[in-house]
Amino acid sequence: MKFLFFADTHLGFDYPIKPRIEKNRRGKDFFQNYKNVLSYGVEKKVDLILHGGDFFFRSKVHSAIIDKAYSLLYEFADHFPIVIVPGNHERSILPNSFLTAHKNIFIFDESKTFFFQFQKATLAISGFPNVRENIRDNFSHLFQLATEGNPFTNIKLLLLHQAIENSKIAGFTFRTGKDVIPQKLLPRDHDAILAGHIHRAQIIQNQYSSAPIIYPGSIERTSTAEIDEEKGFFLLEFVEDETENWSLENIEFVKLPTRQMVKLEIDLLTEDQKRIENWLAAKISRYKRDSVIRLYCDLPATRKLLTAKFLRNIASPQMHLTLAPLRRRNNKF
Ligand SMILES: [Mn+2]
What is the DSSP letter of 96? Predict the structure, then answer.
């Protein structure tokens, strides 16, 4: 049995419906990778797809984006069941639509378990929508609500959108805190804990059980904090042994295409438009034409020259070039 697990698609990110100005936006990259994952599922004939939340980039999404995202979901749900747990970006609830009424689309609206009967095995997927406040103290209760009285199944999965102890982002590890689930609270009879929320793909060894904690991460970089991260999703393969026991045998990370992301510090002090133009053009020419470039400049004189119009003219049409806000200064001299 093969399951595909992805998360944090943030659909609608940089995807204006009526853009004021024409420029190369990143929104289509997110939609493209979303479609890439679903297509991969068809190609590999997976039995089911799980989504770990932050399906949309925020709670109020234009209906055109909802329709575009759900239409694909509806189309692909003809091939396999799709299970989604809402994240914090959609405020723990996904917008309603006739397009999610497909019999193969399952969305967590509360603590519960979805059961699936395949030819060879039974599967339980338990979970609950993202909890913003104090998941540490609420987890056990919500898990109990989701699983109490559940019948036996061959495979058990927990699907969440939360930070779990020892998950990592660049330069930080979640350990304790009200917004973190301690590993010791996680169920020990499940085959895997599948979670969205942390945008860095990772597999965490659970200290109390052999069930891995798996974060597929986001499908494209949502900020420069993710600059060094590879993006993708997981293919999970369950195998049955002679005693009819099912176990997670294979976990494969499948990479998704992403655009090169670059941070560029402008340290040239000048009031001369031509000089900064030449300087920037030389720097930019070293990167791929479709790069995502974030400029940093704290020199007031130079910064004055970096107008939106100037930046639009200097970037290639495929490039995504933006100026970061002024960084906060430490006023100790
Ligand atoms: Mn997210």
Answer: P
Distance (angstroms) between ligand 1 centre and the Cα of 197 equals 5
Please name every residue paired with 107 in a beta bridge, in sequence order, or none if there are none.
Answer: 84
| Percentages (nearest 5) of helix, strand, coil residues in the chain | 25, 25, 50
Angle (deg, nearest 10), helices 63-76 and 27-43: 10
Q: What is the pLDDT of residues 300-329, one digit of tens each?
A: 999 999 999 999 999 888 899 999 999 876
Domain layout of the chain by residue ranges: 2-255, 261-323
Give the distance (Å) from ligand 1 centre to CA of residue 40.
22
CA pseudo-torsion sign 262, 202, 89, 103: positive
pTM higher than 0.70: yes
How many Å lie between the centroid of ligand 1 and the Cα of residue 170? Answer: 15
Nearest to 305 by CA among 265, 270, 278, 264: 270
Please state the CATH superfamily assignment of the domain spanning residues 2-255 in this structure: Metallo-dependent phosphatases (3.60.21.10)
Q: How far is the CA of 57 from the centre of ligand 1 (A)?
A: 8
